[in-house]
Structure prediction request, 56 residues.
Amino acid sequence: MITNNHARGQSLVNAFEILAELEEEKVPGPAKLIKTYPRLAESIEPGDEDEQGRLF
Prediction:
């Protein structure tokens, strides 16, 4: 398996996909990430956006 870091946050996407594969089920993750990377819908269970908070 090969992964790399990317300026658009793709390493985070890779991490969620790998974790879901290892656990053989969807894992909790940020709903906003699915909007940017729709393929994550197969790997993560979106969390409540209100609980995620905001950076700014």
In short: Helices lie at 10-23, 31-36, 49-52. The longest strand covers residues 27-29. Residues 10-48 form one domain. The beta strands are 27-29, 44-46.
